[in-house]
Design brief:
- The N and C termini lie far apart (72 Å).
- It is built from 15 helices and 10 strands.
- It has 552 residues and is an alpha/beta fold.
- The strands form 3 sheets. A 6-stranded mixed sheet has the order 6-3-2-1-9-10, with helices on both faces. A two-stranded antiparallel ribbon has the order 4-5. A two-stranded antiparallel sheet has the order 7-8.
- It is 43% helix and 9% strand.
- It has helices at residues 122-131, 171-183, 200-240, 257-269, 277-280, 299-304, 315-319, 322-332, 359-381, 405-414, 421-426, 435-480, 487-501, 513-526, 533-551; strands spanning 10-19, 52-59, 68-72, 93-96, 104-107, 109-113, 143-144, 151-153, 156-160, 185-189.
């Protein structure tokens, strides 16, 4: 590092989901609930929902970048995507220098997708609209301030994983990665998600996810409390009016805080400026105070608390600060793929290799492997089938260093390593949009297109053969009549006609000549004598002759 601000030109991004549900995990250690048997169990109020919003978060070693929140939708067309401005109120704001050299404040970004998650069309937009504007001077060559040494222009490194849409194999995505490489943006590969000590954002999510889950429970509790309070006030108002039928009408559905404020004003003063009792609220006997709904309107409260909350109740502001972010990067290792995370106590070790199973841990692994082999031999000597104890401890595979570019491209294609973090790393590649990787990706696209063309050619040949067989059989039918046509010819005609007049039926249902002829004659009845199979064949043969004449 020449200047401290050089740290700001390295970015790691990852995504996590924010569920609109207070339901916890159903299996695993986190699903366990401990209680004192001396006291009755009160249970927990659960808000269930299958909906969620995906949060895409990114940081450099010192600053958080503006988050991207991806809402879900049932609309299949982008023209029908609608984002309510109210969903964006209260979303986190970030402040940093990034690549601009001056401290500025930025708002969060929002998007919408059918599944509420990242895809191959959104990932390029995320890079271009969210990240690159923070680094307006990105280019391949580095330019520094001659006095301070601060980086004024230069390459940007973005570490990511192979999650949905990040490393797609289609033509458009490969072209996007090529353009990034020309601009000076390198997509580097983070460590695979095999353990907790992997990427920087995964370190942060260990703190952030429990905090947002707790915030979701708090939002649900506030909504329930608001409904209870509104019911009590409504009942009190009815008693003041002398209405003895208190249970006849109670508040059933109040969701937003603004609606609760309007109702409180109505209950206190008898009227409100912008409330219509009949239009805004429904009153029913059986509505439950616990029947609340969490949706996109509550997203800001889930990820960053309510406006007047202290910092302890604001998950994003509390966790995404410079001190915490620096710790995440130090745990993983600042330099791209330097394997610092592999030395963490939580990481499972392997035998073999320069950096695997070292020290006391390595000795224990070797002793374990030897004891296992000795136990298998002893079981065999006792007369039992010791061959079933055939487990072998995994051995680290060394990196393959291939200097020849063509050989490396062929290896990438053969092992389908273009979108695999582990395979690329074993081949000594760390940049996912390097010229070698994009060249291999284009080679894969070419191979895929060649296969499609071959399949299409085979399909066309089959269709031509079916048409030819049907035409020859129909000529025999016209000359000699139905009685002189063989079973093979009848089935050849039906094989061509059936997909045209009855595409949902299968040819295997008419495996004999009589069955095939019977089905041909049935077409006229099914179609109300408007279309007969003979006329369909004549029209086809006439069109085929015209095509052949045109080709000549």
């Amino acid at each position: 590092m020449v200047h401290n601000d050089d740290l700001l030109w390295f970015i790691n991004c990852d995504e996590t989901d924010h569920k609109f549900s207070t339901e916890g995990p159903k299996v695993g250690v986190k699903a366990l609930c401990y209680h004192n048997p001396s006291f009755p169990r009160t249970g927990n109020r659960i808000v269930k929902s299958s909906r969620h919003t995906t949060g895409v978060y990114a940081t450099n070693p010192l600053e958080p970048l503006p988050p991207l929140y991806i809402f879900d939708t049932k609309s299949k067309s982008e023209s029908n995507y609608n984002i309510d401005p109210a969903w964006c109120q209260g979303l986190p704001k970030v402040r940093g220098k990034y690549g601009t050299g001056r401290m500025m404040t930025y708002n969060s970004f929002v998007a919408m997708r059918p599944k509420g998650g990242m895809d191959k069309s959104l990932f390029p937009m995320y890079i271009e609209k969210d990240i690159l504007p923070l680094y307006p001077t990105v280019q391949r060559d580095t330019v520094r301030d001659p006095k301070t040494g601060r980086k004024l222009k230069g390459p940007l490194f973005i570490k990511t994983d192979t999650g949905p849409g990040c490393l797609s194999q289609d033509e458009e995505h490969v072209r996007f990665r090529e353009n990034l490489e020309k601009q000076g943006v390198d997509i580097s590969l983070g460590l695979p998600n095999g353990t907790e000590c992997t990427q920087e954002m995964d370190q942060g999510f260990q703190e952030y996810k429990p905090a947002t889950d707790a915030s979701t429970v708090r939002v649900a509790a506030k909504k329930m409390a608001a409904r209870v309070l509104a019911r009590k006030k409504f009942r009190a108002k009815m008693q003041q009016n002398g209405n003895q039928k208190q249970s006849a009408k109670i508040v059933n559905a109040i969701e937003s805080e603004s609606a609760i404020e309007d109702l409180n004003e109505y209950l206190a003063e008898g009227e409100a400026d912008d409330i219509d009792e009949e239009d805004n609220f429904s009153f029913e006997v059986q509505g439950s105070t616990c029947n609340v709904k969490i949706d996109n309107n509550d997203l800001s409260a889930i990820v960053n608390g309510f406006p007047d909350d202290p910092i302890e109740l604001r998950p994003f502001d509390k966790i995404f600060n410079s001190t915490n972010i620096w710790k995440w990067w130090c745990k993983v290792g600042f330099i791209t793929m330097n394997q610092n995370a592999l030395y963490d106590d939580k990481v499972r070790q392997q035998l073999g290799g320069e950096k695997a199973a070292v020290g006391d841990y390595g000795k224990r692994l070797k002793i374990l492997a030897q004891d296992y082999e000795m136990a298998a031999n002893e079981v065999t000597e006792m007369g039992f089938n010791g061959e079933i104890l055939d487990l072998e401890m995994e051995v680290v595979q060394p990196q393959q260093n291939i200097d020849n570019e063509d050989e490396l491209v062929n290896k990438l294609v053969a092992e389908n390593a273009v979108t695999s973090t582990g395979r690329l790393y074993r081949l000594g590649i760390q940049i996912a949009n390097s010229k070698i990787v994009t060249k291999a990706a284009r080679r894969q696209i070419e191979i895929k297109n060649e296969k499609k063309a071959a399949q299409l050619e085979t399909k066309n040949q089959k269709e031509l053969f079916v048409k030819s067989e049907a035409a020859n059989a129909f000529e025999k039918f016209q000359k000699a009549g139905k009685s002189a046509v063989s079973s093979k010819d009848t089935k050849a005609i039906l094989k061509f006609i059936l997909p045209l007049l009855a595409p949902n039926e299968k040819m295997s249902s008419y495996n004999t000549g009589p069955k095939a002829m019977s089905r041909l004659e049935q077409f006229a009845i099914d179609l109300g004598n408007k279309i007969r199979w003979e006329s369909k064949m004549k029209r086809f043969m006439k069109e085929d002759e015209e095509v052949q004449e045109g080709q000549l």
